[in-house]
Structure formats: C-alpha cells, structure tokens
Amino acid sequence: MTLTLDRQPSARQAQERRVFSFSPGPAVLPLPVLREVQRDLLALPGAGGSVLEISHRSPAFDAILAEAEANLRELLAVPADYRVFFLQGGASLQFSMVPINLLRGQGLPATYILTGTWGGKAAMEARREGRVHVVWDDADGAYARVPSAAELDLPEASSYVHYTSNETIQGVQFRRPPEVGDSPLVCDASSEFLSRPVDVGKFGLLYACAQKNAGPAGLTVVVVSDEVLERCGDDLHSMLSYRRHAEKGSRLNTPNVFGVYVFLLMTRWLRDEVGGLEAASARAKAKTGLIYDALDADGGEFYVPHAEVASRSRMNVTFRLRTSELEPAFVAAAAERDLVALKGHRSVGGFRASLYNAMPMEGAERLRDFMLDFRATH
Amino acid sequence: MTLTLDRQPSARQAQERRVFSFSPGPAVLPLPVLREVQRDLLALPGAGGSVLEISHRSPAFDAILAEAEANLRELLAVPADYRVFFLQGGASLQFSMVPINLLRGQGLPATYILTGTWGGKAAMEARREGRVHVVWDDADGAYARVPSAAELDLPEASSYVHYTSNETIQGVQFRRPPEVGDSPLVCDASSEFLSRPVDVGKFGLLYACAQKNAGPAGLTVVVVSDEVLERCGDDLHSMLSYRRHAEKGSRLNTPNVFGVYVFLLMTRWLRDEVGGLEAASARAKAKTGLIYDALDADGGEFYVPHAEVASRSRMNVTFRLRTSELEPAFVAAAAERDLVALKGHRSVGGFRASLYNAMPMEGAERLRDFMLDFRATH
Lengths: 378, 378
Prior knowledge:
34% helix, 378 residues, homodimer
C-alpha cells in the first residue's frame, strides 16, 4: 500500500471503500464522529487552527479536556472523590504503573485473577515490584470462563486485587466485578470500557486504552479514587506517578491532544446518539446475541464457541470451525462480503469477531448471515 | 469554546480562520499535510476504513510504519546500526527511560549538561536511578547561552552524557553536539528534531517528541545505537525497556497509529516540498533571522533579546520589552494581526516566537513587520 501526497485534495475519498472491520482494536469508529473530525481538521471552530496544532495549554484544549472529563463522569456516574486522567502508553504501561504505585514497598502482596492473556501480562509486570498472589489462573482450561464468587479464595488483605473485566483474546467477560472485601479493586477495563454501566464506587482504580470502544490508539483513561491515590508511593518517576498526574490533571506533560478530542466526540455520540451506557449495553447484547444465537443453533456441529456460555463476552465473540481446514476459506469468503479482521489471536486460533460500540447492527447481521451461508455451503 | 456534533457536515470549515501560531508546541503543521489527513480521514486508500480504525497489525499500518522509518532514516542519514522506535509518553517519559535503562545498576555516574528548563527536568528524574554529575548549569545566567567546549569539564567516563540540543523555553541551541569522548552521548532533540541535519553517529541515543517540527502530540521518536542497546539494563518493566521495544519494533503494544501516520506525511513533506534537512535548516535560519535582525537593529532600546548571540535558537526566539508594562499591549496588538501564542514561558517572561518547520516565511515576515510597527508606535 502506498499513500500519495496530493496537494490538490480531490473528491477521491468518495470512492474509497469502508468495510466492516471486526478488529479487536484499534477498531471501528462511528461515521458521524469521523465526519466531524474530517470537517474541522483544518480549523477547529474558534481555535484558529487544526486540533493537531493547538497548544495543550490553549483555551480550546481547556474546553476539550474539561468536557471530555465531564462527559465521562456523566456516562459512568463517576463519584466526586475519583480522579480522571488521560494518559499515554496504553494498558501495557498501566500494567507497570499499577504495581509501581501500589505494590512497591508495601507489606502486602498484590492479588491477581487471571482469566486470559492480558491479565497474565499484567501479573508479569507486577512481579517486578513485589509479591504477587494469583488466586485464579485457568490457563489449563484455555481461559474459557471466569470464576464464580465461590471459586475465588481471596486472601484477607492485599495491596490490591487486579482483574481484567473483559479478556479480548479469549472473549470472556465478568458479568459483574468480583467482591474483594476491603482491598482496592483494580480493573483493566480496556476492551469493555464505556460499553456498559459499571459501579465505579466498587473500584479503587480502573484503566482502559481508548482504541476499542472509546477513541483512537494512543490514549489511556485512568479513573482512581482519592483513597487509592493516598496509598500510592511517592518519590516515583514523575511520568509513572499517579500522584504527580493528579497534581497536574492530565497535563503533567503534553497529552495526546487529538486523542482526547476524538474521545470527547465519542462520549457525545454515546450520550446523544446511543443514549448512554444502558443503551450501549443493550446494543452490545443484541449484536453479539445474533452471533451467539447462530453458534448455539449450530450446536457445535460446524462452529465451536470458545467461551463458556455464562462467561461469554459482549464485545469479542470467539469461535473456531469443527473442520479447521476450512478456516482459510472462511476468511476469504468473509472478505468477499467486506467482513474483515476476523482471524482469532494465534494463541486461541479460529476466529474472533469484535463488536465494539461503533459496530453498527448491520455489521453483526451481515456476519451472522455470512456464517449461516458459509455453514450451508460447506 | 463549545464544539457541536454536527451530523450533516457542511462547508463550515471554509469559513474557519487559521491564524499564525507561534506556539512552542503542539505547533503549526503544513497545510498540505492537514489537507491530506482531512481528505483520507473516512477511508485511507486501500485500507477499507479510517486511519483511526485500522489495526496496528494491518498491512496498511505495516506500510505506514515502514515508510515512516525509512523516510526518517533517509532524512537524518541514520546509520544501519541504529534502531528507530515510535513510542508514547513524550520527552518526559524519556527523561525516566534513559536513566532506568542506562544508569540503574551501572558503576559510573551519568553526566548532565543543563542549558535550560528541560535539561533540569531530565536530570531530576535521572537522580532517582543513580549518581548524576552536572558539569554545566547556567541557572544564574538565566540560561542565556550554551557552554563552549573549553567550559565543559567532562569526567573521563560516564554512563552517558545528556544534553538538550535546543532549550525551548530559553531559546538557546547548541550549534553542534558537544564532544564527549567515549561516553555515549544522549540528546533530547525535541524542539529541533528534523529542523536540520545532525550526525547521528555522534549519538548513542537521541529522542524527541513529535509535536514541534514533526507531527502531532502523543508521539515520541527514539533513535538508539545497537551499542547503547547492549548497555541497557535487562529485566525492566517491558514498556520502559529499550530492549523490549527493540525486539518488537515500535509494536511492543499498540502504538499511536494516527501519530505515526501524520509523522509519515510530515517526512514526505520535508523531503519533497522542503527539500530535505539542509533546506529546512536554511529556512529556519531565514525565518528566525528576520526576527533576530529586527532585535539587533533595535540595539536593546525597545526589545531585549534573552539568548546570547552565539547561542541563539533557530527555533524559539526569546525576547522581552524594555518597558515590561507594554507587554499586554504587545500581545493584544499582535492578536489583532492574527499573530498568536507569543507569550513567553512564565519562568523567563516576555515573549517567545517559535518558528518550527511548518511556519511559513510569511508568518515570520508578518511578525517582523508587526514588531517594527509596534516599536514605531510605542
């Protein structure tokens, strides 16, 4: 693929095709959001230049940052004693920042619940900072389910308890946060962030990269309680310290200005067009429901779902073919219908359809129809 | 400022004004680059969707990343035994990553040359990882100049020697890298990156945020020699480890896809429109020359330059008014002529005109004319 620098912008874009991408992230964004970004790309109203050019200290960005945070607080009903930061480095940097701030130098171990690949990566980084106690690791079961409350034998006290609310690769999701007693609950919500309401008050710290349900790659959102902030270590590297970020409110250094701007447009779209997170959740259930219903109707004869029913993700539907030799044909036939990025992660194999906030119902319907047709013809 | 979500994109943008922004960063971008971003925002040719939606593992992004790196290597003549990473977190995260990788656990101290605010911040983070030896700190002289070679009393051996090639806030710039013997030279090139040729072979590691001369905020470029990579500590937090990034070539986790894309367009523009870094350097000299000439012609009667002549930055021109009471009037009158973001950093006061790669000559001429007029009428 070659991109050409064209100094005479033409109407070429009208001819460019948009397909249905089931990419696990970065992922599809709503067309109205993309159109607004496009419209104002040369000059943001009132800012005197492009959003790509404005200072992070400008009144224009003051307004963007304030509204982005306000909208997030409204959508998620974030309590007043929680802080919100827009950072960089993805969830992966949070895998390290969480233990650097909350495990280093603490007497108590951190407890990790591992229900998939990403939780495992988070625990690996935590071990660099102190003792890590793993209370659940279903690797032997290929991470096909999340534990029940009865299965979680939590220690009486931990520096914190970490879990991954939706495992993107395996397609398993907690229905509700685990009950962890008095220890702060830390959640990697990356691949379900803003797809449904959550009771933020149950968390000590919640983090998510934006590029699945909430914006472009390069932006990370952290929501942290004042209580947990006080537990954080001090005298840490500035960029790795939640306390330093708290002092500077997302502007300890230059943030991803464009990322925050697109996130703002996403929150408006979620509120005004989708109707909030209850509605987003209903949409997610309806969209993934079409695919799960097709899998269930098949009964495992042709398609084999990965996740157990009670743990199925409303974001990432994972399955394989009973006859794995047919998988290349499945990919090719799907692409012919403009259904792309369906290949599963190499660690799980098969297929993964990610149906985030911006995936229209039409995309889910087309995928379902294709799956039924493919089964009928093979 | 309120942004409205408009689902019927209109021709409004044509009416939006673009002013001349002398912001120290994020800063102005070339109009042809912005136009191309705008044109392809809904669907990148051949990618099936927006650059904001494509996977960082997609063929489209493979091509973007490969060409961005190739163009950078061509523009800067990066030797084959150097690696290039596109990271997140700005120069500020590099202030920590450099000593975490190259000072922690080493026997030798790190040497820092402080010629302004940013070098001081870098040294502060380094002290968390080991001994820091400051060989030059002209804070008493308000950082108005860089040291001569004779003034730098460097220790025989250091873990590395760090300096800031252009101090954005004070407007002082090294003409050439300091000679540091066998110790690896580490350079924060943030505010002069890609504004002139540099002999990359003289550096062990060179880093820069993109939002001044090379792209939008949220992208950091690191160029590091294989030799220095080998000196880096191991067993570090993955996201903070240059070795881990080297293994994964900018994709240890999801990079700022959009930032790399705009960086790619910037490198094309620099090569094809500007004519390479020698030409960029000549442009920078011509643009800042207009302003410095105006300051020199004044002879300190009305305008007082901050930086000493031999250390003047070709990026950020710093000055104040002899009569500081006139400064608000200067800002207001400049804004009336669409010349904005001229206020100096609070630590230096007065004014700062940043004239990065994308500032057209017309902007410099308009500023010069305004300065002459303002002097004549006050």
